[in-house]
UniProtKB/TrEMBL annotation:
UniProt GO BP: chromosome segregation; protein maturation
Family the entry assigns: Belongs to the MIP18 family.
Recorded superkingdom: Eukaryota
Gene3D superfamilies: 6.10.250.1280, Fe-S cluster assembly (FSCA)
Full protein name: Iron-sulfur cluster assembly protein
Keyword Secreted in record: no
Domain spans labelled MIP18 family-like: 59-139
Coiled coil: none
Transmembrane segments: none
Species for this entry: Starmerella bacillaris (Yeast)
């Protein structure tokens, strides 16, 4: 794109992005004791049940979307603070037979961003490809962050508009470029 909408966005370094903390040191003594635990001591109650799922959390969803690239800048949406960990909410019991929800608020870098709907579409495609079909995704702009907030929110969550956009080969090419590093 030749004319940038935001010529000077605030950029976060990769090291500033939230990451899941490692707990190896915290559990190293537990790991050592498990190594000594032999198979003959195993109880059938300890066998993993395939029908139970651990609920996903905000960090897991953030990890799925943090490498989505901005359509205008050669940076990720996380580096531009368009997506952030504190703007993701999850409603998931972990039960396979119940509908779960993911809500992401995006914060455009400028209030008149014309690419907000394209960014939302890219995030929706990424999550639809990555999450189980039991998840319902809602994407909205952060309140007060866009001058056409209600219109953008309506477009981002209208199934027919999203389906039509995904059938447009030019839009799909841009979305694929946004997701190329995921």
């Amino acid at each position: 794109m030749e004319d940038l909408l935001n010529n000077n966005p605030i950029v976060l370094e990769e090291s500033q992005l939230p990451q899941r903390s490692t707990t190896v040191e915290k559990y190293s003594s537990d790991i050592d004791s498990l190594r000594r635990f032999t198979a003959s001591h195993c109880d059938e109650d300890l066998v993993d049940d395939d029908d139970t799922f651990e609920p996903i959390d905000n960090q897991e969803v953030f990890d799925l979307i943090k490498h989505v690239h901005d359509p205008e800048h050669p940076l990720t949406l996380a580096q531009l603070a368009v997506v952030s960990l504190d703007r993701i909410s999850i409603n998931d019991t972990g039960k396979t037979d119940t509908i779960a929800g993911v809500h992401i608020e995006i914060t455009p870098t400028i209030t008149h961003c014309s690419l907000a709907t394209l960014i939302g579409l890219g995030l929706r495609v990424r999550l639809d490809r990555s999450l189980s079909p039991r998840f319902r995704t809602k994407i909205t702009v952060t309140p007060g962050s866009h001058q056409s907030e209600s219109q953008v929110n309506k477009q981002l969550n209208d199934k027919e508009r999203v389906a039509a956009a995904c059938e447009n080969s030019q839009l799909l090419k841009v979305v694929e470029d946004m997701l190329a590093h995921c």
